[in-house]
Amino acid sequence: MILAIETSCDDTCAAVVTDDGEPRSNVISSQGVHDRYGGVVPEVAARHHVALINDVVDDALRTADATLDDVTVVAVTQGPGLVGALLVGVATAKAIALARELPLAPVDHLQGHVAANFLVTDGGPFEPPFLCLVASGGHTFLARVDDHVGYTVLGATLDDAAGEAFDKGARLLGLPYPGGPALERLARDGDPEAFAFPIAAGVPGLDFSFAGLKTALLYKVRDLGEDEAHERRADLAASYQRAIVEALALRVERGLRETGLGRVAIGGGVAANGPLRERLAGLGAELHVPDRTLCTDNAAMIGSAARWVTPLHEFGDLDAYASGERGFG
Amino acid sequence: MILGLDTATPATAVAVLPDDGEPVELRHEPALGERPGHAAQLLPLARRALQAADATFADVRRIGVGVGPGTFTGLRIGVATARGLAQAIGAELAPVSTLAALAYAADGDRAVLAVLDARRGEAFAAAYRAGEQLAKPVAIPPDDLAELLDPALAPWLAVGDGAIRFRDRLEPAAEVPADPSALHRVSALAVCRLAGVARPVDRAALLPDYVRAPDAVPRR
Ligand SMILES: [Zn+2]
After folding, report:
1. Is any Cβ of chain A less than 8 angstroms from the Cβ of B72?
2. pLDDT value at A329 more than 60
3. For the CA atoms of chain B, what is the radius of gyration?
4. Region of residue A39 (phi > 0: left; psi between -120 and 50: alpha; otherwise: beta)
5. What would the DSSP string read from start to end of A78-138?
6. How much is the pTM?
7. Which is it for the CA torsion B175, B181, B183, B186, positive or negative?
8. How far apart are CA A276 and CA A266, in angstroms?
9. How many beta-carbon pairs under 8 angstroms link A with B?
10. Cα–ligand 1 centroid distance for A124 (angstroms)
11. ipTM computed for the complex
């Protein structure tokens, strides 16, 4: 069995995944403390990880009805992410693996989001080839997945991530952090056609851009004035959400056409968004959306990706890597 | 057998103290301008120290870990490593103040001010005499260090990388050994010895002693 650990951002996660890819447990401890800061504070996240991770590991083993004796490999997110946060997971995984004389599988976080689709669940595994959209607060990219070991990025955001666009929009509308779920709730009572927000249609190819959208909302709120903007909050939320969903769907549609693939999977926290799921389901391609807890940051996806990572037997000097850097292939 | 770790300063310090037999001490000091090697060095050093003592992780009965104060990331690597090892092998955990470890190694019946460079214009400091803590760890401006040197307790000895850095604020009220003195470096063997007489704690209680709050301002 694979014991997997993920601490790349603000969720402290551990999971047990069988060698065949079945998640036996998937424990996610959301820190919550960042809400009052209006965003993730790296130092606060790292402090919580160190206090929580061992209990989360115990919980994952207990829920899986397993002990460390049943574990044959330890998997851990090596990056990209917040380095201070990653280091807690990496130090923990290395210590457990070394002391138990187990091999260690370092996993790329983004490959983890892709590999969530390979887990053996009610609706899975969803096998390659497929087009994969990963959209969260930290990353937004569209990739072609041809096998279990990697992916080819077809397009990525040029500025903000889609989840970041949700958070920033929510903040402009006076909604609490994290903004995605709050904005989606508010948007239910609004008219998505009330305002026309940009969907970065001018950005060529399969890249995304959300910075202009955020600015457009800022100007709209200013032009309406405080009272009217407040009164029409739901319309603003619905129209803003529609723009994000359309921007994502437009690239997925283009991607399907360009690759000739008829299958698409989504991952990342934004995959939980109802209107996005509905919109993508209408594209005529076979759509796979893992359970919500497998879309947001979690360790089961890291355990899944680890099945195709050659585990290291010498890993004492393994370090973490931040955004942009890659510690390995 | 006790395993001692300290990653509060740029150095990575490891020691093994067998129940009987010679202790083993290993350390990594980053070269000038190089980043601390905590993440890459700590476990390899621990394994080498155990091998040198003809032991494995399974032989470790207690893990002593320097909980700071010190660099936040370093402290977390030390604490997370100690916690992970304990989780894997069932060893006891004993937190040791990094400043107390510095003072212990400086020893004697003199009053000792242990001082670490806390960056951002501050120093971490605490005072000890014969194993007793006279003043608990604080983060203070270097100019305030002298206030911790109660003349009634003189002669004072000041040690640690902060004592070197802020020598001019400490002398002549305190004696500061020459820069190359080993007394300025945290000894993992001192961590082992203090851990040996400490009461082990529940894992939940083993946390870094950050002293400083994170730099973050809540919204509104
Ligand atoms: Zn993610």
Report:
1. yes
2. no
3. 17
4. left
5. EESS-HHHHHHHHHHHHHHHHHTT--EEEEEHHHHHHHGGGS-SSS---PSSEEEEEESSS
6. 0.95
7. positive
8. 10
9. 111
10. 20
11. 0.96
